[in-house]
Amino acid sequence: MNGSTTSDAINFIGDVLTNLNSGNTGGQTFDNDLDPNATELALNQVDGGGTAIFNFAIAKVRYQGIAQDAQAVRVFFRLCPALTVSVAYDPATTYRTFSDGIQYGQKIALLGMQNNNILTIPCFATARVSPGASMTTQPDMPNVRTILHNATGAEVDTYFGCWLDTNQPGQTVFPLNPTNDGPYGGNLKSVLELVRNQHQCLLAEIAFDPDPIAAGAGPGTSDKLAQRNLSLVTSANPGDVTSRRIPNTFELKPTRTGQTPEPDELMIDWGNTPSGSFARIFLPTVSADEIIELAARRYSPAQFKRIDNHTIECRPQDITYIPIPPGSTLNHTGLLTLDLPPGVKKGEKFDLLVRQITPFGRQGSTQPGFVPEATASASRLRWRRVLGSFQISIPVTTKELMLEPEERLFSILRWILLSVPVHDRWYPVFSRYVAQIADRVRGLGGDPNLITPSPTGELPRPPEPIPPRPGREDRIRYTGKIAALIFDHFGDFEGFILETQHGEEHKFFSREKDMEELAERVWSERLRLSVWSDRDQPQRPLTITVLQPPAHFRRPRE
After folding, report:
1. Which residues make Cβ contacts (< 8 Å) with residue 543, sequence separation at least 6?
2. What predicted TM-score, i.e. pTM, was given to this entire model?
3. How many Å apart are CA 359 and CA 385, to the nearest integer?
4. For 300-317, what is the mean pLDDT?
């Protein structure tokens, strides 16, 4: 799309839906891009080149009707603050909706709430109403359509969509703990300030009056619910251990007290996660001892290790079941951290799937969304229903490609953390998550202490040259990374090329042996350094400062 304003984003999604529904897309279709890894959402407003970034979602609805049109079909889009495994249909919390009570009348998605905590944020194909208006007055006509039937019974496809305004920090819309559906006033937050993970879960609900959704249904059991719940987090190759640390925050429902004789469980299918990895699960509202005790009743107690009062550790192997202790109705917040082994290589990709499953009974079920679990008797199966799931995809790349995006992410997350009160249910998890992103930045060769909180992910510019002073040598400082080493036609070291974070290249020449050793090590470790030179001789390095050098580095000579 062209443009960089909110109006441009709204106009764009409207044009896309019009073209998709009229077949005027110039050959492009909804199914052109089948790679989910190419559809990640961005929290930063602009890319490294200054181009504006906007996030959108599109849903295709399939309808088969021989004799009747489908009138006033709506699709509601809801954004969860983080990943979630608890997306069962509950119109009183996650899927709250305003209705005027008239069939085919006015309906609109509202904030999903639980005890004044936000669970879901609705997104639309039109501009949001101002905070001074009630959310019940929100228009979204591009997502209300009558689908004409095909008399032959052929499937009719219709498209719906929305703008995901997650990276608009200047657009404040909701309070942190809303008590109603507006009007809102006081200390309002942007959608960006309300997200709690780099990637968020997106829910789509088809609302069609003659065919309501059953309470408790989920994306796996209802054809009117869909979930996009993918987190894409890169790993270095092989890198420091913290550069191979994959953190993700998530949300899950506790086991309902007295509802079932057995607890709900997190079922983690580790997929092709490499041997030698280990995972930690932090649940600040759950006792680690209670999890281990519940697990010992059904599985081997040795599979979990207690790290602290609320953290357990396990070795990924096939499928891991983690019992969820009973608790209040308020969702748990959690942090899943996976450390990959040092042997991972660039180009590899690992995928794992996390589900919340709840006991369903001893009778078999052939319906979608149910999974069997073998019991002591081979002739009997214990069936469990899937409440929701999320997938984590981990492509392995290099430190130099990861560093700047990770620094921008850390800057944004630090800014979000400033708006999270210490008593908020997300604070223990989110603050630990931000600290682990800081560790990733450090492991990639950056310095998180130099990165300030920014809603746009703007990184600090290098210091300006020191102005000349009477009686003092006039020097200039350049900060960046060594992009190349320079050798003459005899193969002798001649100097190096320094690339700044703004893409500028500066050549420095020196034939000193110590300089060669230093340049080679800094270049191989991809560390940052500052080079001071005389203004009159800018290619002659006078002083070199290596930022966070390893212990084996020798102090460079001036």
Report:
1. 475, 531, 532, 556, 558
2. 0.78
3. 6
4. 89
